[in-house]
Amino acid sequence: MSYLKKVSDDLSISGQVSSEELKQLAMAGFQSVLNLRSPDEYGFVLDEKQQAQIAGLEYVNIPLNSHVPNQELTTEAIQAIENLPKPILIHCAGSARAGGVALISEAIKTGLTYEEITQKAKELGINLEQPHLKDFLLEKFAVK
Predict the structure, then answer these.
(1) With 60 as the cut, is the pLDDT of residue 144 above it?
(2) Which residues pair with 33 in a beta bridge?
(3) Domain spans of the chain, in order of start
């Protein structure tokens, strides 16, 4: 599963996954899937929750808009990450939202500095302009 990017021991990110990949995730030891896609997005897999559960994975869908930050939904996603069994695969369409949310979660959990966040984002190819991440950085570090 080379499409996965590991953010920490508990969190990995990717773009959209197939039902076959969900089975592979379960076999690889993943416990949960957090899908950040909205059901009205092109390519949203309508029965993904059932497929994940059949594979033995916990499943949560929190529809984050890919262009507009939403503090409430971002907070909900962070809480889901805290509460879901680990390790978790966080995915969206192309991994931008997933990367942003995983990085926010990791920053909160381990108290990362702005420099550490930007370094980690660079290593993982996560765009700091990703709306949810940018919003978090603005609020937490007053970064312009």
Answers:
(1) no
(2) 59, 89
(3) 5-141
